[in-house]
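Hi Y.,

Following your request, here is the sequence exactly as I used it, all 83 residues.
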Amino acid sequence: MKTTIDISDAILLEAKRVAAEEKTTLRALVEAGLVAELSKRERRGDTFELRDASFQEGRGLRAEFEDGEWSRIIEAAYEGRGG
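Below is the corresponding structure, written out as tokens. Let me know if you'd prefer a different format.
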């Protein structure tokens, strides 16, 4: 698959120099770098994990909200906040 990426001139020149020195291609060098970086991230476990932000075990909704009317809950949440 072909793609286009922007690389700073300094990095590109250094990469071309290293590729020539190691008798390889720029493509092979870029692929090796991507494989190494992706592998490193996988080992670190750079996946997003949502922290548990649940509140202490409660007793459900307060009495005035037990009817489950969402508009009343929203109204109470914004009460006094100009909403």
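The longest helix spans residues 26-44.

Thanks again,
Q.
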